[in-house]
């Protein structure tokens, strides 16, 4: 004869699953674009947890798309190769030698690490760069930045075809120019362009900060695009947060329902943001 003690942990788990039902219904067949920043990738255990959450999203009917960065990994290899790299307004100045390293790291090492982690959790991760099937076509952002591109077109049909086969696209932010050039794209910018082209329900920017902070240093959980512009003009939003909030504003004005800047270091941050009232960062709406 088997007996079972109904302990509080099991009850709490059941209550959590029950309370998530309205959110599961809300996001059924939704498209969620997730920007995974290089600093947010963390340890192997953190990557495993992230991959498990992404596979769970796919299992409950969400169509996740991962766009990743890899700045720390690029910096590490550039240092080892003794290639100097400068930044202007948060964007890497990219000459030909730097571009070769960027593509090697992003399309190779980083992309395949994420794909492997997703597949290890039972998902169908597929690695891509913006050059595959002209997924992301670019124009040169600024000649002073070298091979840095701004997305001009996204092949969203290709991604929708992958959704139908239950693949989870993992995209390296490398783009193709009209004359065959290879461009480095800011990861946040690439994620925003992909989300806007797909008219995604949500864009999540996973980073290594808690969210957008006000002048008192307190994280603001909900903002409008107008709030972001005012806080930027006042200097409250500054530094590396500027390109993230700009991406969020451009995305929501491009048709994305909402964008959230999320602390990717928090365990299960994606699930907390999508499937709980509490959320896990700063949500920006139009």
Automatic annotation (TrEMBL):
Originating species: Tritonibacter horizontis
UniProt entry tagged with the keyword Kinase: yes
The name this protein goes by in its record: Acetylglutamate kinase
Catalytic activity: N-acetyl-L-glutamate + ATP = N-acetyl-L-glutamyl 5-phosphate + ADP
Subcellular location: Cytoplasm
Any one GO biological process: L-arginine biosynthetic process via ornithine
InterPro entries in alphabetical order: AceGlu_kinase-like_sf, AcgluKinase_fam, ArgB, Asp/Glu/Uridylate_kinase, Glu/AcGlu_kinase, NAGK-C
Ligand binding (substrate): 70-71, 92, 184
GO-annotated molecular function: acetylglutamate kinase activity; ATP binding
EC number in record: 2.7.2.8
Function: Catalyzes the ATP-dependent phosphorylation of N-acetyl-L-glutamate.
């Amino acid at each position: 004869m088997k007996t079972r003690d109904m302990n509080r942990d099991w009850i709490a788990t059941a209550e959590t699953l029950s309370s998530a039902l309205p959110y599961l219904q809300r996001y059924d067949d939704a498209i969620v674009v997730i920007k995974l920043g290089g600093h947010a990738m963390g340890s192997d255990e953190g990557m495993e947890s992230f991959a498990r959450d992404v596979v769970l999203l796919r299992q409950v009917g969400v169509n996740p798309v991962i766009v990743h960065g890899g700045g720390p990994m690029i910096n590490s290899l550039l240092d080892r190769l003794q290639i100097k790299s400068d930044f202007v307004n948060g964007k890497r100045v990219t000459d030909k030698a730097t571009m070769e390293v960027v593509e090697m790291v992003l399309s190779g090492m980083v992309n395949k690490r994420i794909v492997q982690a997703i597949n290890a959790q039972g998902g169908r991760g597929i690695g891509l760069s913006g050059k595959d099937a002209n997924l992301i076509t670019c124009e040169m952002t600024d000649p002073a930045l070298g091979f840095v591109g701004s997305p001009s077109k996204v092949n969203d049909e290709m991604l929708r075809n992958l959704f139908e086969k239950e693949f989870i696209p993992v995209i390296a932010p490398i783009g193709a120019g009209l004359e065959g050039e290879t461009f480095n794209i800011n990861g946040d910018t690439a994620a925003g362009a992909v989300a806007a082209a797909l008219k995604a329900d949500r864009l999540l920017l996973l980073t290594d900060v808690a969210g957008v902070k006000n002048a008192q240093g307190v994280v603001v959980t909900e903002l409008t695009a107008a709030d972001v512009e005012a806080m930027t003009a006042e200097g409250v939003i500054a530094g590396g947060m500027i390109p993230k909030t700009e991406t969020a504003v451009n995305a929501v004005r491009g048709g994305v329902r909402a964008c959230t800047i999320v602390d990717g270091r928090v365990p299960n941050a994606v699930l907390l943001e999508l499937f709980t009232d509490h959320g896990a960062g700063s949500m920006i709406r139009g």
